[in-house]
Structures are given as structure tokens and as C-alpha cells.
Amino acid sequence: NIVISEEKISTYTREFKSWGNVDEIVINGEIETTSSNTEGGPGPHKHQHGTISGTLKGKGTFKLSGTNEWTDDLKVGDMVLLVPTNEHEIFYLVDKVVRADATK
Predict the structure, then answer these.
(1) Distance CA 27, CA 42 (A)
(2) Are 35 and 94 in contact (CB under 8 A)?
(3) CA-CA distance, 44 to 36, in Å (whole number)?
(4) What is the C-alpha separation between 7 and 16, in angstroms, rounded?
(5) Do 80 and 95 meet the contact criterion of CB atoms below 8 Å apart?
(6) Taking a C-beta distance cutoff of 8 angstroms, is the pair 49, 33 a contact?
(7) What does the pLDDT read at residue 81?
(8) Residue 79 near residue 99, CB atoms below 8 Å
(9) Residue 62 · residue 24 · CB < 8 Å
(10) Which backbone phi and psi does 28 adopt, to 5 degrees?
């Protein structure tokens, strides 16, 4: 007779949206490019590129959405907070808890 929060169930997923500012981003690496023949203009011509390497820095805004999957479900031996109804017929499992002195 225990009622449990949905997010405590293994592999619980939830949709999300997020937006905000990117204060700083630094990307280090290399980008390999390829050669190609392109039809166009006065006739066929060839573009040839090599490897571009270095650091890209910037800032700006972002928007993203997706799905989060909870992977920290309850395990045997976890301490939990149970709240009973007045008649003690149903118990609500609120969350996983720890003792204050256990966090030291």
C-alpha cells in the first residue's frame, strides 16, 4: 500500500525545454574537409580544402529541447521518507533521504 513518485521509478523519462545565454564557449579541434568537382559558372571547377585546426570562441544564446532519463532510481537499502494517511492504510513515498550526520 505504498504510493511512489513517478520519477523514482527506473528509467522514468521527462520532456524538457531550455533556453538561455552562453557566456563563453571554447572549442578546440580539427575539421577535415574534402575535395569536390562542382558544375557551375563558366564550366566545371574544383574546390580543394585541407584540415582546419584551431580554437573557436564565442558567446550567444541557445534553445534546446529533448528528453531526460532518470537513472538514480531507488536501490535496496536506501533510506526513504514515508508519510502515512491518518488510518495508516496508505503510505506516500516522498523521496530518498540521508541522515544529516551522514553527509560529512
Answers:
(1) 39
(2) no
(3) 10
(4) 14
(5) yes
(6) yes
(7) 93
(8) yes
(9) no
(10) -110, 140
Cell matching residue 74? 531507488
At 60, which helix (H) or strand (E)? strand 51-69
pTM of structure: 0.49
What pLDDT is attached to residue 91? 95
Q: Which domain holds residue 81?
A: 2-103
Indicate the number of domains in the chain.
1
Would you write out the chain's pLDDT as a tens digit for each of its 104 residues?
899 888 887 778 889 999 999 998 887 877 666 666 555 566 666 666 667 777 878 899 999 999 988 888 888 999 999 999 999 999 999 989 998 886 65
- φ, ψ of residue 7 to 5 degrees: the values are -70, -5
SS3 9: coil
pLDDT of residue 103: 61
Closest Cα partner for 2 from 76, 86, 93, 78?
93
CB 23 within 8 A of CB 59: yes
